[in-house]
Write a structure and sequence with these properties.
By secondary structure, the chain is mainly beta. It has one helix and eleven strands; from the N terminus they run βββαββββββββ. The longest helix has 7 residues.
């Protein structure tokens, strides 16, 4: 079990599943949404996610017709993304998890778009020029 929170602590989450994989996406949309070289996410089944506090602070932005990005309306911390065609899973931003997680990076996706100033680590993860479906 894990807990997670946004920067202002207005949103508090409880995750009741093991996190075994971290997926990293290097696409331009993720770079812009995170303000960073990539996003690091963990797929979480929606049934294993409880919003303990701050549901009213969650705001959504539809980056595409099929994918919404959910963030804190108070501090703007990215919380998760969700695809409409995968309604049972969210992609939690692992940086908001409060505890240490025993997970490794499983894959780097959209590496053909990675930031030119970022070198891919030799972390043993799978590398995909485009997206990877897990």
């Amino acid at each position: 079990m894990y807990t997670a929170s946004c920067l202002c602590n207005g949103i508090q989450l409880k995750i009741s599943q093991n996190i075994s994989k971290i997926l990293v996406c290097h696409c331009k949309q993720c770079q812009k949404a995170q303000g960073a070289a990539f996003v690091a996410i963990a797929p979480i089944e929606i049934k294993n996610l409880d919003i303990i506090q701050g549901k009213e602070l969650l705001s959504e932005y539809y980056a595409t017709e099929n994918k919404k990005r959910v963030f804190c309306s108070q501090c703007a911390s990215p919380i998760y993304s969700a695809r409409l065609d995968l309604p049972d899973v969210i992609r939690l931003r692992v940086g908001i998890i409060n505890e240490d997680i025993n997970a490794k990076i499983y894959s780097h996706a959209f590496t053909q778009y990675k930031a030119c100033w970022f070198d891919l680590p030799d972390d043993g993860a799978l590398i995909f020029d485009e997206k990877v479906v897990v």
